[in-house]
Batch of 3 targets.
Target 1
Amino acid sequence: MAEQPPINSSSGQNFWHMEYMEAGLIQGSRIARVIFDGQSAFQSAQIIDTEPFGRTLVLDGKVQSSEADEWVYHEALVQPAMMAHAAPRRVFIAGGGEGATAREVLRHKDVTECVMVDLDEEVVQLCKEHMPNHHQGAFNDPRLTLLFSDAVAYLRENSELFDILIIDVPDPLEGGPAYLLYTQEFYALAMTRLAPGGIIVTQAGPCGPTNVTEVFSAINTTMSLVLGDTSPYRVYIPSFGTMWGFIAAGLPESPSVEGLMVSQVDERAATRLNTPLKYYDGVAHQGMLGLPKYLRAALDAELRVITNAAPLYAI
Amino acid sequence: MAEQPPINSSSGQNFWHMEYMEAGLIQGSRIARVIFDGQSAFQSAQIIDTEPFGRTLVLDGKVQSSEADEWVYHEALVQPAMMAHAAPRRVFIAGGGEGATAREVLRHKDVTECVMVDLDEEVVQLCKEHMPNHHQGAFNDPRLTLLFSDAVAYLRENSELFDILIIDVPDPLEGGPAYLLYTQEFYALAMTRLAPGGIIVTQAGPCGPTNVTEVFSAINTTMSLVLGDTSPYRVYIPSFGTMWGFIAAGLPESPSVEGLMVSQVDERAATRLNTPLKYYDGVAHQGMLGLPKYLRAALDAELRVITNAAPLYAI
Amino acid sequence: MAEQPPINSSSGQNFWHMEYMEAGLIQGSRIARVIFDGQSAFQSAQIIDTEPFGRTLVLDGKVQSSEADEWVYHEALVQPAMMAHAAPRRVFIAGGGEGATAREVLRHKDVTECVMVDLDEEVVQLCKEHMPNHHQGAFNDPRLTLLFSDAVAYLRENSELFDILIIDVPDPLEGGPAYLLYTQEFYALAMTRLAPGGIIVTQAGPCGPTNVTEVFSAINTTMSLVLGDTSPYRVYIPSFGTMWGFIAAGLPESPSVEGLMVSQVDERAATRLNTPLKYYDGVAHQGMLGLPKYLRAALDAELRVITNAAPLYAI
Amino acid sequence: MAEQPPINSSSGQNFWHMEYMEAGLIQGSRIARVIFDGQSAFQSAQIIDTEPFGRTLVLDGKVQSSEADEWVYHEALVQPAMMAHAAPRRVFIAGGGEGATAREVLRHKDVTECVMVDLDEEVVQLCKEHMPNHHQGAFNDPRLTLLFSDAVAYLRENSELFDILIIDVPDPLEGGPAYLLYTQEFYALAMTRLAPGGIIVTQAGPCGPTNVTEVFSAINTTMSLVLGDTSPYRVYIPSFGTMWGFIAAGLPESPSVEGLMVSQVDERAATRLNTPLKYYDGVAHQGMLGLPKYLRAALDAELRVITNAAPLYAI
């Protein structure tokens, strides 16, 4: 049998980030260097270099994104909706602290404004300073408007319309204010902020065989109750230790992410982007949208609707 | 922050299966019950019930398959090649100890013979006794011929031809005899044992963003050197903690797995199978074959060829 | 920096026994072999070979005793009281499942009867079968009377007197019936079962700088309330991951363990025992009784009294 | 069974310090806060707050001392030799980075000079800044001379004599320069730097039942070859996960640590110290010196002598 690697890191210490993925399942990543360990006004925050995943943001004990695979997550979150839209100009991001969601939006030459509303200024400053490979300068793009505030309140109080709304906040399970961005009420509000042809896309939690009903299926049912047809899809994120789901939907007349053809994706990528992607193109699109039977069955069977009064605190 | 589950299991003990997925990355599964812990003539073998994954076979310290996701692995290994073939009758399995690969083959009503050659009789007996949900009676199907022997030697010494050859043995990295089922020489031998229109498919190791070049890309390069066009594809296996790859290829005139259409898969599944699948159908097929850019780039860039003289002991 | 050992065991599997020693402190022992994993009528029970500690009994997730250091525990539990007594003939053991406490008693040539009352017959049978290096044949000694019953009930219902009473049951914290062997009421009962000159000794939980007040100090206060002067002492047990305490006390006219002199211990050991000890002699006795300042201060400061109505469920 | 504590800390992150105590034995401490993580010119250095042990210094992956038990270590290292000496005035410390060894020396009112020579200025500065509960102002005592240099070279190049020499450096196993403070040659040099009646004391590694022969017994044999009678003794240090040994010796006419009586220790403590101790007094002295049989047997059986040419790299 092959020799196994030692417990302590190449940098000499023995720190591990140990995270429960579900009951009885731990993923442990050896820490090469702790860059920051503290508390913001809203959450516990760490920036670490881990051996398997490089520079990593951890909030409230959970990996948010890592250098090794953040491009998978952020391209998957942003690009399908952007490519499906006829001509996205104005984009709204709820959350998105690392700046990588904005980076993906701003790859699109024709985007004129990207409004990013994140609750936690301290975490955004940490990312700005310590995670340059994540934001890659997006914070300096003049098309970005960065606000530190509650995204729901912002949308409620501002009547401007957007071509794309991107929801990049933690899962609805965790008790914090994030669950209010996954409710029937929220999708009804968001719908009124979509410009004609507009699309909303949300990160939607894990969707592997053992955890698809944790939140993914309920978010899908909730969205489709408000918005009609949805386009659920997923990618694999190693640092999350699971498949990760996303769901897009739009106004009745909006183009659908599910309906995008391989050639369309590739043509639009060729003309719209100022820098190349690493994960997403037409073939990858097919892979992301081609859901296995068990997953489609779980979506079909899901009856739970998330409301402001009845969030998904646990399963 | 949500309360986390405790370290010890519901059954009261505190045992964990701790497995290095790569350097600095551990997946730990809480053990609910140890069913068997011993050594066969060839390897260390355990059968355990883990909390996240149910009944699980572990060989030489690595999870081989678990109740929670073995159906993902085994459908992915077997069904694409079986569906791509015009009319598979005779099937060969190298390895396949749990009996679940045979189970998938024998779902096909028109299969007349399935020859399974596994090295380790003791492990097969353990699976037969303790993993009924894996084999589901496949060992009792009269169409199965089960031999305990070296699969390479069997193919070398028997000139019978097969419609489908399925390679279900450990990765080529691990020093044991398994690497001889991933070499240029092996594929040349296997080719001579394919009946006209025949297809060979192999499990091909991890293929996530952080480990696609471990063995997957080299197996693909090696296969295509011998067999021409290959169909690489992948699924996510939670208990392996990563995306898992498979590669199919055939004789020059054989149908290709990559070329299978959604409707073909669904029509053939409807007519050929005696029991329904849980993971695989036409849409899932598209998902499995739709490889992301980085993965196709890794395949394109790979130059390593695995030979009997130069196996892939390490990367 | 020195190379670190690998995560998986020499026997090829990757199982670890992970035990919380206190909040935020885990001791993990690599398992070389699982001998037994099951449930008795009373508790979860495992017998494992661990790499650091050899053959080990685990009950309800906690190491009870291991080959590597059980002799430290069992000599420390038994020999000081036996040596302090003028001429011990009749000995009572509450608990003592592994048979090693009886072994220590039966080393004394002049012992005529040892009554051992353990609740859990299944666990005793497991130890008899799988832990021969623990009991070393003690179960076959004709002087041993082994009963499967409740030790408190036995003492209540039988009026026979003993020279030595040995309490070898789990800590009073854990909710089970064991806490009833640490209460004021129990010590009052036990006192009536001591023959003139008799001594009672109990295992008394951890007593290191971080955990001395968990149960040790409260047991000492409770015993001294009933029995007057106590002799608290301790040894280090690696597999328990901490210093471990014991407390002896007697009738007003009984000899005290604390008062034993080096030369007395060595003379009595030389004449009374049929086999040599590994840990205990006169010098070791001084080491065990010579408590550090902080520990004596903790004992002096302790006011908690354990009663049947108010056990020590938590600190 | 009692509920177990969660994996993540009260401060919200999930970092653990995981340290191999020996092959197959891990001690894991949950980290509440990372204060510093970096590299000095000589070693990897961390300062962390752990839940079980408070503020902790970690060097090259190993806990050096923690708030919860450093007083046990430092009193044990310093006080027995200081109390055994007739009237210690001038004291030399090799190592001692945290300042706690100096603190113990400077408790003695009659000490006129304490020369501390530590190799690693960066680590000492870290301790000065972040570990005030360790040094308690010792760095500001005018009697302290603090030098950043090689202690062996210092002793070789300076002919001044000391009443007490204290060796507070890492174990001789680890390849670094520290092993040169445990050799026959070093003890011969040190002997020439002892004033009449002088005593040398060294930390001497783990000495529990499973690890007493790792380095402790060999250091004892080496010291006694040069210095004659030695006084080996030990205490339990929870954050080291084991019993820890120390060895004192002196010139032929020097008083012996082993020969100190209970009353002497208490009388000298009462008159010599300016602040009270927490661990050490006359009774504790007896406990520390009262070695168990197995440990004395291990010392008697040890034949290895550590020399500059043959350090103890491994056992």
Note: The longest strand of chain A covers residues 25-39.
Target 2
Amino acid sequence: MYTIDELREMVKAELEKQEYVGDPYSLYEPIIYMLGDGGKRLRPLLALLAYNLYRDDVEKALKPAIGIEIFHNYTLLHDDVMDDATLRRGRLTVHKKWNSNVAILSGDAAAVTAYKYIEYCDDEYLRRGIDGFNQVAMDVCRGQQYDMEFETRDDVTEEEYLTMIYLKTSVLIAGSLRHGALIAGAPEKDYTALYEFGGYLGQAFQLQDDYLDVYGDVGVFGKNIGGDIVTNKKTYMLIKALELADEATKEELRGWFARRDGNPREKIEAVTRVYDRLHIDELALQKINAYLEKSYAVLDEIQVKPEFKEIFMEVIRELIGRKK
Amino acid sequence: MYTIDELREMVKAELEKQEYVGDPYSLYEPIIYMLGDGGKRLRPLLALLAYNLYRDDVEKALKPAIGIEIFHNYTLLHDDVMDDATLRRGRLTVHKKWNSNVAILSGDAAAVTAYKYIEYCDDEYLRRGIDGFNQVAMDVCRGQQYDMEFETRDDVTEEEYLTMIYLKTSVLIAGSLRHGALIAGAPEKDYTALYEFGGYLGQAFQLQDDYLDVYGDVGVFGKNIGGDIVTNKKTYMLIKALELADEATKEELRGWFARRDGNPREKIEAVTRVYDRLHIDELALQKINAYLEKSYAVLDEIQVKPEFKEIFMEVIRELIGRKK
């Protein structure tokens, strides 16, 4: 099997070919900009890893893999407009660097590009590949719609939140693994198992993100701590706290939400103290571990050489495992 | 062959099934709203007509046909946001009735829905169908990008304009005919000829739209006359006038462009007088007829029963031929 660095290098080289660029260049420039920010390339790597479990000729899976990366970036492009985000990975978002129209239209062009790349596969896998990808793409839209609707609601349940992040985030991670397995001709059982595995992994990954925003080590995490708290973002931490808090604590939390100015440090510390008191950190870690355990259990079912599975898991841990 | 009314009824019934609707309903409601405005259904009808040239079981082509209609409406949804249009076919646009985020995201969901429907075809046609559709979808993005860039330019040439409307409008009309022919198993030559035919037809159609905005009969045309003049829209009429005008006339036109307030009637009359003086009406009619003749010439090449071709042409004339 290839190492993660080798695969990452292949993804990088394939993206750098920019074979999708046509006329006018201005339509494609924001896509190049977006893809050039050095993301982790998690999704194409997962697709290639899944492919590599069954076949050695991973170069055959490179185009679909970067198609998935382009699809992911298209969703980010449109999400950034909808959230009116200013920065992404430390750089101006497309609609801030250019304008909203550029972000909408280049996003649309990126979506078509994604479809073009994803269909690079043997004919026998085409229908299933496109069907699967359509399902993933629609689920991502559904997740984003729920996410936007949750913003104005104060009564989002844990279950609703888990469904939302599943649709918005986990489904694409699951779909990346499934697509890699599909076009490698993996057995039916593995095709299903890798999708399920990716779904659980995605949930663990997103919940870990929520957890690390509060309890992460800024040096390792690479983001400012407390960003979600400052913006009142409805994370697992906040939803769980609102569920478990007594009336007085709820009032306290609502008081902090209402504060738009003032010292962010003070707000972060106060909300974190509420989380501490309610043991939200422990609950989150339990939930993350429960999802990871589920994911490992599903992985046990797939039918590849044990040593392959071992390498695969090691790489997954490296990709996903951001220390607190 | 089916009559146009029968086909229109089938398209309507298929759209009314709303089989694409999922959770949350709020994501799909704007799509239903958009599709419920009683457009002409030109594109699905063209797809069904092309299919019907070769096969009788047009119900097999209904899903791809409405997929094309859904795709068309997705592009309108996003275009309306980009143009900040208030009305479409006499009703509030989606981003005015709801907001921009709703229009962006429901548009994205409509695009995925379109892909899902368009791929309803026998496996042997799938790759080519999806490839063709990707090409059309990308061309529409390219056309919209050119259109937006032309807004801030004063030196758009006739050739550039014709390329832009070809990409933005004609390619989808061409693609509708081609897709219908493809999934009916039409011979290679016809598949190509119908695309070419649709391209010329689309050009004639769009140029006629430009012409009728100035010289149309308001009762028949169904739009207010002079709308393009009031908004300084870069139509064939205006581009041709700027090309042919002497310096004094150009100054006169620019003077009218600069007028944002005042009596629109006065502006429309003055600009129309300039067009009259430069015989833009005749030039436009010549251009429209040239495209129509080209389209008929291509149609002569397709290999179907002559009586089928005759019915087909009659329907096309009925669909396209809006009297002045």
Note: Strands of chain A lie at 87-88, 91-92.
Target 3
Amino acid sequence: MSTPQTTNVDSIGALLSPRSIAVIGASSNGARIGGRPLRYLIDAGYTGAIYPVNPSHPSVQGLKCYPDLASIAAPVDVAVIALPSEHVVEAVQACADQGVKGVILFSAGFAEVDAAGAALQQEVCRIARSVGMRLLGPNCLGAFDSAAGFFATFAQVFDGGVVRPGPIAIASQSGACGAYLVHLCMQRDIGVRYWITTGNEADVDLSECMLWLARAPEVKVIVAYAESVRNGATFIEALETARRNRKPVVMLKVGRSSSGARAAASHTGALAGEDAVYDAVLRQYGVFRADSIEQLLDIANACADGIFPDSRSIGLVTGSGGLGAQMADVADARGLDVAPLPQAAQDRIKAILPFAAAGNPIDITAQAVNDISLISRAMEIVLTEGDYGAVVCFLVSAPASAAQTEPLLRAFTALRQRFPERLIVLSFAAPPAIVRSFEAAGFPVFEDVNRAVITIAALASFGESFRVVRSDECTPAAAVDAAPTPWAEALDEHSAKQLLAQNGIPSWPEHVATDAAGVGRVAVDLGCPVALKILSPDIPHKSEVGGVLLNVASPDAATEAAQALLERVALLRPDARLTGVLVSPMCRGGVETICGVFRDPVFGPVVMFGLGGIHVEVLRDVAFRLAPINEREALSMVREIRGHALLEGVRGAPPSDVDALAKALSRLSWFAVTHRDRVEEIDLNPFVVMPRGEGAFALDALIIEKESNSLTG
Amino acid sequence: MSTPQTTNVDSIGALLSPRSIAVIGASSNGARIGGRPLRYLIDAGYTGAIYPVNPSHPSVQGLKCYPDLASIAAPVDVAVIALPSEHVVEAVQACADQGVKGVILFSAGFAEVDAAGAALQQEVCRIARSVGMRLLGPNCLGAFDSAAGFFATFAQVFDGGVVRPGPIAIASQSGACGAYLVHLCMQRDIGVRYWITTGNEADVDLSECMLWLARAPEVKVIVAYAESVRNGATFIEALETARRNRKPVVMLKVGRSSSGARAAASHTGALAGEDAVYDAVLRQYGVFRADSIEQLLDIANACADGIFPDSRSIGLVTGSGGLGAQMADVADARGLDVAPLPQAAQDRIKAILPFAAAGNPIDITAQAVNDISLISRAMEIVLTEGDYGAVVCFLVSAPASAAQTEPLLRAFTALRQRFPERLIVLSFAAPPAIVRSFEAAGFPVFEDVNRAVITIAALASFGESFRVVRSDECTPAAAVDAAPTPWAEALDEHSAKQLLAQNGIPSWPEHVATDAAGVGRVAVDLGCPVALKILSPDIPHKSEVGGVLLNVASPDAATEAAQALLERVALLRPDARLTGVLVSPMCRGGVETICGVFRDPVFGPVVMFGLGGIHVEVLRDVAFRLAPINEREALSMVREIRGHALLEGVRGAPPSDVDALAKALSRLSWFAVTHRDRVEEIDLNPFVVMPRGEGAFALDALIIEKESNSLTG
């Protein structure tokens, strides 16, 4: 049911930068939905042709008005439709007939309302797609390209004037939220180049817009607001394109609290709340997932300067020891390294500021903040000798003091010129005009020290993400090319393990016996104690029929137990094909984990990892990654869970073979991608990780195939 | 080494509201440390007498100047000292001689610098205390009472004018941070009544100031900044007094990141990072611990209206579905209940807004935000029929629109008058003057929806805390009165368990045998398997000598094993007194937990609880409470840990007897408080909680006595 991947992403550009625009349902009243876009286009000095369309007026807002689209002699690139929903099909048909390249459909009353509206939406989309015309909306607030003065929107936010161009682009599924973001940008004097609201996404969706923005060289930062992604593949392509182009993506994805909804059941797929998958995907592709609108803009604005630290170490220069400690707390929580200054540099700081704490935070004290030369010299030492990825300087409210504003601005402008490539973030409280002047000098400024430090952490993460050289093996495109190896229709535990072993995912040794006597013979060969398990492609959950016996102490006991087992299961499940009994030596030692993959409806195969027992089922201590992953990514996944110390060897236990674990996770992800059309879910539970050098093995394996496959089999 | 508890808290008031003030080290230069307080006192219209003291000038800033304190004929209530540290002892002595009631000591160069400074500070403190004169500082920024125009500070923040009075009081250990807070209050037009910076706390400390503020009826909200608390008892008294007076305390406590420092060892005391104890104490006494300066003021300002919700349910009225979802996420994360409107109310909303989502969030859509009567009617329905503790209304940027500002303000003023007792928080973006006008109408306003929801969660928590009726048994004062029961010097495991059992903390049944043959006889009586443990007051950690044997299968095996055990221990620890061997039936079933108490240097006995095994040692899934606690508090502690579901019965296990657990935790806390002078630490590890109705028992118990006790024993 997923939307087919659209390949003509360039057409998004045609929607945003047309040479001519018609406004169908044009109004003389600049406060109405059909009047606002005309007013904004005129106000913003749009240089293309503007054609108001309304049969009731000869002219609208000083422009010649046309009775219908056909009456316009010149080509119309984009048409805005501001009509009640009942007139929309006719208008879209007219656009299609006239060769319009893109339609921006403001009208509400479609799929967001009821089934009739959904049908209407489908019809509108069908007309547009039949001629290759792109359609933005319905139920959207429109779009703009501020550099072209192209404001095809009825967002009230531009009533007092339009936004200035800048390096930021915004794509939002919500019109109101998109408009709010622009309003806040204008309030903070942040320039915005493109803005697209996708509304009901009948045709154009958020992922396409993000992909186009990721490719557009004039865009330096992508801000996105999403409720749900329709096209996982395009979304990933957009994120990966942005990453390759060193273009940060900052995103507000709502729906965290729904994450508990699917958490009731216990199989692998159900462990992933939908939100957990989004969270994993965003982290995996280097997106900063903002907690709030405010944070979204904090980070986006700071990204606009294009300086991304090359390490996670941070220097904290502060006029308040207390807020220095606060910054250190936040830095620690965000994984930044508050490394001390080298001793020589500390000595140099002490020489100019005897009462300063010179380690890190470097507390220059509130008094020193009044002596600008001291700040400059301290900052010079920290920037030259500290080897920090970023430095934050908390100036209390010194810049607000009339006598200090200009000298401080001069001092910091000089620092900026001397260290043009270094990320320096300021924190102080002052009226907006003063804050703007420091921002214009090249410094992100935050009143709250936490926001300064969080911003640095985000920028450092972008830097890390940009530096990753992803091998081609780990792009979804390459994965799909891998040649799948076919397998027999019905997989029991043993054949599933064999198949996985062929694909590099090892299992614990085991033997198949077809009857009770055979079980006894295998037990003699292996030596006791052994484990016995019933083998049947029709019994995925063996414990439900008492199909697992552990610690069987002797060959005789094994024979006897196997006989009882076969009889019991035959009685309980007369329908099931019994292919035999699995016999294996008992596995001693090692750490039990759960490894699995499941198919996410949006993103496809997702790998999951957790520790066994209560860790996954009760503590929900699980990590996810979009498949495929390489071993490096698998290791990061292993380290992400709270209980990862258990694999490092605690309470006298030896460290576990995490390399073998990571290799298996990577191979498992590859297997799932290669067989994505066939595999619904794979559970390796438990997957035991032995001490370092001794490997890691599936003790149990379950491959669930997709319904459609079973039906056609 | 703790500072003795000061009982004359009223003397803090004398420091803040004197009838006369001398400024020793007065300067004509209003920008100098000795000049600023004079300038501020004059500017703020302080009506008391002001006596500049400086031998070099006949007058200073238009006031008659005195060569020394003795030359002032009238009594001096408070003296500010703004002199270099080397002249401070002499000045403080002069103050003491002249009967000054309080000294505010700005000077730096004391304990914050070096040992010589610390000695100087001690001398200054000694002089002050010898005559009962209170001393604020040294190394502080001073204090103010804005209503009296008493600004005894050199904080630069008042260069442009002083702050207006208001219901908020600020106590800060950091001068710079305190000044920054006031600056931000002035920027947000928040009134501040009292402000005290305690600096090095030679005499007056933060806890005393907070206690005084908690008692002062004119103070409605206490804002505190702390690095470390010196006097735990006074601090707790301050928090409990504030709570009883329905006075919210909002606190920034830095030092979270140091919490990992003590986490290496594995015994109970070491499990508590210092910060975890602060965190528990603040939660336990209803303090809102802010994450940032910004949040500190968000919450404090919203508290000033004195409306605290009577439930955690929240109605979300929004002009943006997307940001409605965002608010729902935050509400969920903060434990607020986003309960749907009753169906009848939903129908009424639908009748006026057919396209609205009426459940909760109630999405009135961006269009409706333009029709003020629709907002009013929707809010009226939500407030009347929703039964919500609080309602947040997100107005996008409608109030910023020139045509809507006044009508919206009128509409909300009418709502405020109709629902004066309801907490209604607004979120919108608009210029500061417009925001202020809505705030003045009685609505907290936030640009960011998250901050609106977080504020409501904080106010709801204050409401909950204010409603708690704490029984007298649970105040530290009552605890200290309990009569301690003495015990013999050396406690081995068995006598420790007996002592605890006498105090209501049950142990698993066990018998003491004095020799191997006796062990065999007990094993016959009990029936096997049994557990054997070596018993010695000198071997607290039995496993280190192989002193624990589990699952001993027969009486003969028990005799044999006991003999070997006694011989081995005698060999390994010839010094240890062996009092016998503990024999007990094996304990089957139940959930292993760890219960304990330890003595925090600031707050005294702290109770800790966690699940057994890796939960505490690896996952750090632990809860703490200041002792004593009642059973209700003990239950909240049990529910606080991430793994608490394990006690509710998972994977087919029955629910555990948490009532018995809570009772034992409460009794343990009482025991620790009663014997606070003797007990260093108690570990019950494991403490097994059986299925509901079957109790909870210590399988092991260790009581570590304070060093001083052992030495005197």
Note: Residues 1-6, 259-272, 472-481, 709-713 of chain A have pLDDT under 50 and may be disordered.
